[in-house]
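TOPIC: backbone geometry
CONTENTS: sequence, structure tokens:
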Amino acid sequence: MLVHAALIRAPARAGELIFGRTLLERLLLVCERAGVRRFYIQASGSDGAAAVRESLGSFRDHPEVRLVGSLAETLDDEPAEALGVAFEGSLVLSPSQLHGVIAHQSTRPGDVAVLESADDGHAGLVAAGPLGRLVKQDHADAARIPTTGRLPFALGRDPGDVREAELRLARDLRRESAPRDAPLARWLDRRLSWRISYRLAHTSITPNHVTLVSTALGLLGAVLLAFRGYGPRLVGASTLLVSTTLDGVDGELARLKLAESRRGALLDTLTDNLVHVTLFAALMIGCYRVDGNQTYLALFAVLLGGFGLCAVAGWRARRNRDQQWLARLERLTSRDFTYLLFALALADRLYVFAWGAAFGSYVFAIALWWATPAEPGDRVSPDDRAGTAGDCENRGLLVELGALWRVAAGRGGRRGRVPAGPGVRGGQV
């Protein structure tokens, strides 16, 4: 849905730093993630305008940021019936919440949808609706969206509100990722990962740094599975568990710092696939070295064939419009497998995982193919797919490697900051 403009009454605490970005810059970035391309900021007097400019951060020279004495000036450039969003108070919110307000308003075209902040005084709000009504603050008969959770949060006069806002953003990561997480990732990993992300967000560490560390640990754990001894293989499975937790931190850190990018998501997916291929190859080698049975070498070839079928079935399934069940299915087959791997390593039964993975990949591919008849009329648009599959989309190692190379070479899209919805993983490259 096209959002023509954002109307912002200059926040009283626009210059407060939230995870390294000013509150006003964060607000503009959140709007940009929602597809807003033009911003009108009401600033009073020369001193107020100067303070706003100091708080714009990376938007200081943005051609579509306009300082106005009154938001009514917006209607000189924009049609009154055009869709817009408006903000009041020193608001801290996430992109997913703004998407939610816009989606709620789309069910009642022509009306205004309002979400009040979750702080005790409800000192801020975000509204979506026709620009003409937003300018007039015509919210008398607006559709009120129930406030759930910890956000949005409006900073008051208490200096401790900044820390409270950051904590709320970090804790809200679990709620945002819940629809895309497998059960154990949601119940165990996220309880630890958001705390790690919260601390890293106050440092100069980037999401890509975390991705590379996670990948290094994942490769180390995978290589240890190729050893014969019980101890090294158990340490390898344990290291893979640590890598799994860190694999969620890079995306969380990117969302806290508002540093998501398509290139970061490509890097994250590429390294995930690299670790998985190494893991299964090392697992088969380790089982062969323990038992001396050459069947495991052939089993690896069987597994690769299953992976190929899964890739083809997954590509075919993503062309189908109904993606909700596919997302649920992929959640159940995601990184939670490392917990099973650890349990079998603890019981010294890794060969069970090797056989199960080899033939289970064929069962998964056949089930996916059978359940998703792809018809030309059922193809889903990229926007629809982003809104449903989200992080689940994984096109395979070679495809992602090629995409990453094209982006790095400047042929995969616009360079610089890449607007992204709540489902985008990873950071900037």
Remarks:
- Residues 45 and 69 are 8 Å apart (CA to CA).
- DSSP finds 15 helices and eleven strands in the chain.
- The chain has two domains: 5-168, 181-408.
- The first helix runs from residue 23 to 33.
